[in-house]
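seq:
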Amino acid sequence: GQVELDRNDYIILGTLESYEKMKNYYGEENLVPVYIEVEDGERLRRALMREFSQEEPKYAEMCRRFLADSEDFSEENLKKAGITRRFVNADKIQCLEEITREIRYGKF
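struct:
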């Protein structure tokens, strides 16, 4: 009763598994998936920089999460989930503009 699709729009962050569950519950026609893609080397560099800033860095856990995300968001899994549109996070302003257009006009 908290989600009122006829009255409001919502942004939800999640995994492909949660996206599949939302599609099944709310209907694919009510969702606009936004998959933000970052090149693996850049993704690993960002994770390493975040870990450096921690009081007690956990590099092994960082590597485990990186590998788990690589598997969870593999090409095969993206295809199975029906994710075809990708937003490349190289130029932050351009990426944000593309996402804004997709959210604004992608929902029919």
